[in-house]
Amino acid sequence: MKIYKMVNNNQERTWNLSDFSCLTVAFCFSFVIAVSISQVPTDRLIFILLTSIVMVYAMFEIYKLKKNDTEYWLINPAVLASFFSFIIPFGLTNLLYLMPFFDQEIIDFIGFNKAMFVVFIALLSMRMGYKSVSVSIIKNLKQSSFLKGLIRKTYSLNMPFIFFCIMTAFLARMIEIKLSVFGYSGNEESFYKYANYRQFLHIATRLNYLALIGLALNYYSNIKSVNSKTKYMFFLVFIIELLFGFLSGFKSAVVMPIIVLGVCYYLSQQRLPKKLMIFACLFVWVAYSVIEPFRVARYSSIDFNSRSLSSISTTMATAAKNAEVQDFGSFIGAVVSRLNMTKTLSMAIEYKDEGKLSDDSPDFLANLFLAPAHAIIPRFIWPSKPFGNLGKWYSINVWGNSYDTLSGVAMSPQGYLYFAGGLLIVFFGFFTIGIVQRVLYDVFLRWKGGASIVYLSLLDVVVTIPSSFDAIYISIVRLVILSLIAQRFLFKR
User: Fold this and answer.
1) Is 300 helix (H, G, I), strand (E, B) or coil?
2) 286-323: b or e for each residue (b if 16 or more CB lie within 10 Å)?
3) Do 168 and 316 fall within a single domain?
4) Less crowded by CB within 10 Å, the N or C end of the chain?
């Protein structure tokens, strides 16, 4: 059964569902046989089946995307999102619950199965959204006179603006530290007290990230002829971003700069940076080894001062030095348990289905539709805007942690959307993500030049889809506007 056609590289290709239908029938047939001959409880087998279907369908779609576009398929947002937002958190890491050391009696496989069904709907709708964008829409966007006049055509750097970005971002981070709103070190009271300014400070800190992207694109596109000034500036900005990533206390802030370099390399050279991939894997281990002990020490140390860069760095160094060395098995176990989202989604579904959402709960649906306004209107004009502390609300009310808990728990993007309106809103939310992924890939990535800044600015948002789903729409609105403006200053005519 043909479902749509697309034109790519002057060739017409037909997508169909026949292969996947055969795979689905094969899985269902195997499942029926397994149930009939197995002593394993049916709910556990259903969990295995649903996990397998999600993984196979995700890999099937990745294969189709690769088959239809061999040039940049590895950095297609739809490919990356299928892997990082579905295969890892709801596929590979589900093996954790099938291991012998897990007490099978305490695992709620019925709840897990509901979660996996919601995940499949989310994955299916994301792919439908991607496919719904017609070739004519892509063509019209590419031929838009407004975008053509706005977007720079080369990676030729405006070095004075690079210096401005570096200095402004550094100053903004110093102010965040002085106000005690910097990363994991920040004080909760200060987060609320200085809420009117945090939005602008966060945008200012992103300028160093912008400079890193611009330098990386320029460096890798002229890797054999790049001048020494650009080369040294590139490595300096990368080191600054890496150091502040560690100091922020967020592991993603350490790994993301390395991933961005890898994407820039692939975009320019059209091949994988193998050394950079090894480097990224190494830094995942380093990030866990350094940041996890720091998070404990940040609250246990009586000498810790969240308003002092020296205190933050000293506490981190001391905590890492005194921490017990994790063996590789323990490290892998910790990583897998943190990456898996099946349990947290199943708890969100149970909480919603049992009618536990009250008038005091966040207004998930309203925040979803008001997100574009939240993105544009500053807090000093709209003081009642949500503070974005859903993780703590979820940790206390759904996860059952005490009210004095110090950190939040991710509810998963599917969990947020399920709170907002069940399966219908899950479908709607991921459908829009698919549309954004398609436009980013077929318009901004292929355009190159300044358009690459728009693509790379939004890549993280539509690949590692955050749990606070309304924040995705806020980021899309803000980052599209800001990145279109920024690339005008970052690159020369």
Assistant:
1) helix
2) ebbebbbbbbebbeeeeebebbebebbeebbeebbeee
3) yes
4) N
pLDDT bucket at 386, cuts 50 / 70 / 90: confident
- Whether the CB-CB separation of 367 and 386 falls below 8 Å is answered with yes
Tell me the C-alpha distance between 91 and 98, whole Å. Answer: 12
Helices 469-490 and 413-439 pack at an angle, to 10 degrees, of 30
What type of residue is 89? P
pLDDT digits (tens, 9 = 90+) for 196-219: 888 889 899 999 999 999 999 999
Cα separation values, 203 from 215, 345, 481, Å: 19, 31, 12
Structural contact between residues 435 and 139, judged by C-beta atoms closer than 8 angstroms = no
Alpha-carbon span 61 to 51, nearest angstrom: 16
The four Cα atoms 52, 53, 57, 60 give a dihedral, to 10 degrees, of: 50
Residue holding tokens 């790519």? 8
- Sign of CA pseudo-dihedral 156, 460, 92, 54: negative
Residue 23's nearest CA partner among 64, 72, 73, 68 is 64
**Distance of alpha carbon 465 from alpha carbon 85, whole angstroms:** 6
Positive or negative torsion for Cα 435, 438, 441, 444 = negative
Round the CA-based radius of gyration of the chain to a whole number and report it.
Answer: 23
Domain count, the chain: 2
Length of the chain: 493
* DSSP label of 151: S
Annotate 381-391 with b (16+ C-beta within 10 A) or e (fewer).
eeeebbeeebb
- Please compute, for residue 259, the number of CA atoms within 13 A of its CA located in the half-sphere on the CB side: 18
Distance CA 179, CA 30 (A): 59
- The residue segments making up the domain with residue 182 are 155-339
Contact 138, 439 (CB under 8 A): yes
Instruction: Tell me the mean pLDDT in the region 236-245.
Output: 93
Could you say which DSSP state residue 327 is in? Answer: P
Apex 297 CA angle, 251 and 240, nearest 5 = 40
Say yes or no: 167 and 137 in one domain.
no
Q: Is 357 left (phi over 0), alpha (psi -120 to 50) or beta?
A: beta
If asked whether residues 56 and 75 sit together in one domain, one would say: yes
Residue pLDDT, tens place only, 263-304? 899 988 888 888 888 888 888 888 888 888 898 888 888 888
Last residue of a domain, one of 339, 360, 393: 339
Q: Distance (Å, rounded) from C-alpha 441 to C-alpha 264?
A: 14
Residue recorded with tokens 């390399």: 265
Contacts of 275 (CB under 8 A, 6+ apart): none
- Contact of 259 with 266, CB cutoff 8 Å: no
Nearest to 209 by CA among 145, 134, 259: 259
Residue 4 has pLDDT above 60, yes or no: no
For residues 352 and 415, membership in a common domain is answered with: yes
Report the C-alpha gap between 176 and 430 in whole angstroms: 34
Please give the Cα distance from 470 to 376 (Å, whole number). Answer: 13
